[in-house]
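Listing S7. Sequence submitted for prediction.
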Amino acid sequence: MKKLLLVLLLALSGAAFAASVEDDVGVYTQALAEGKSVDPVLLESLSWKGISDPRVFDLIAARVAVQAEEGRSDRRVKKEVAQYIRALGFSGQPKYRPLIEQYRGDQLYDSYVRDALADLPNYQRWNPVISNRATFDPRYSDDVNRVRNMLLSDDFDLKKIGAKRVYFQNKDQVLLDILAEQLRASYMSNDERKSDSIAWMVKALGSAHQSKYRPLIEEVANNAQEKAIVRHARKALEQ
């Protein structure tokens, strides 16, 4: 099992250096076309890959349609269907809204339906930004470029997704430097709608444990207007 997971992670890492969009799509269509359970790590990665291609999401939609009823008597299948519904929200494709809405109010799937429906319009805006190869820098991997696009966007909710990617996985130096720039430019904001995103910037930058960023985090802790931002800055300094 561990060997299988390692292969999957290597495949995802390989996709970071994909030669084309077709290679990215191929990683998912191959896994979904095999008819076996799809690792949730792979499905969750759709939340930051910027992929909207129906060739991927039609396969996910088909699994929902076929397996949803089976999930009522099989907990394992129920969990998988819930993950498929959630993943449809990452498509940003309105064509999947009717299928998702079929399970609105359903005791088994409703929470995933609500998340997916909330995500659909966001990812309709975000996916073209995340995957915009016109802004990719050839010095960096595809996945670094995706996060770079997120952090440099004007949408603070998308910046938050980028900051989470840095926090949980990708601490490439160029991303940390961009985070520092973005944090310096925004931490004085008193807009509560932005505070959670800025707090994630602080967390992500602090998680790198690099002394070069400590003065900035101290500045944030001493001067930020929003309590949540101050709290996360102080916590980062303690780590």
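Caption to Listing S7: primary sequence and predicted structure tokens for the chain studied. The CA atoms of residues 77 and 231 lie 40 Å apart. Residues 110-130 form the longest helix (21 residues).
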